[in-house]
Amino acid sequence: MIKQRIREVMWTEKYRPKTLDEIVNQEEIVERLKRFVKEKSMPHCLFAGPPGTGKTTAAIALAMDLFGEDYHKNFLELNASDERGIDVVRTIVKEFARTVSMGNVPFKILVLDEADNMTADAQQALRRTMEMYTSTCRFILACNYYTKIIEPIQSRCALFRFMPLKPEDVKARVRYICNMEEVDITEDGMEALIYIGNGDLRKIINTLQAAAALSKKVDENSVLKVAGRISPRELREALEKALNGDFSGARNKIMNLMFEYGLSGLDIIKQLHREVIILDIDEKLKLKIIEILGETEYRILEGGTDDIQLNTMIAKIALLGENR
Prior knowledge:
The chain is of the alpha/beta class. The protein has three domains: about 1-160, P-loop containing nucleotide triphosphate hydrolases (Rossmann fold, 3-Layer(aba) Sandwich), CATH 3.40.50; about 165-225, Helicase, Ruva Protein, domain 3, CATH 1.10.8; about 230-324, Zinc Finger, Delta Prime, domain 3 (Up-down Bundle). The protein has helices spanning about 1-10, 10-15, 25-40, 55-65, 85-100, 120-130, 150-155, 165-180, 185-195, 200-215, 220-225, 230-245, 245-260, 265-280, 285-300, 305-324, and strands spanning about 45-50, 75-80, 110-115, 135-145, 155-160, 185, 215-220.
């Protein structure tokens, strides 16, 4: 009961599209799913794509359009990252799949979210279950990396590729939520949300909710603070200092940002990589900087000290800047 109440107050659940018509930026997928609703027939499906692009939402909206308000009687959602073993397939999944549906649709729907986290043995057991109970149950497997799903299951499913949301679609949804929740958001706050989310609407909505709880006005500073990110503008300034040969200035800037935002060396490198990609510099120089960032990330992952590796990285970029 407590978990249900927590889910109800989360904006990602509250403003989830209830029908296929409300899903945006996935027009081709929506058209195919609507055909399933019209014909009251569908194959097993494999929903693949980045996080927060609407895979689970599309599955729930499909079930609601097919079964109506009582869709819970013919619909089951499991998170395969939690229930990932073979025992779950042999018990929960099999028991649900073998029983007949209630209503005028001849099958039920079982959604396995994050199916790419299932063990190989569980996937092999699932393959047989999908084959045996096709007449009473259709499976929807949602995953980030469909290549981690074994080939026999892939061949049994219709593949749906979900794309990251476009900035204009994200802005429209964020403005809708802000209007409903009476949240004041600035233009730079909106741009910061899009920068942080990178096409992941779930992450954007969660960040928006956290920023709204922190401040009455959601602006760039509040968004970056709750997300634990550095302002792209300040990172670009540090990069420009390094490229101008100012090692001390660039080092002090990055170290101060690390302490101010409480970030690790890997967090800094990931954001620097995004800024280098869009930096207006010579392409060959850009390639050399990306190579330095990649080497630094590897050294930190292998156990190198953040401070020493970041200093080495800044020194190499500064030397590149002097020699260009």
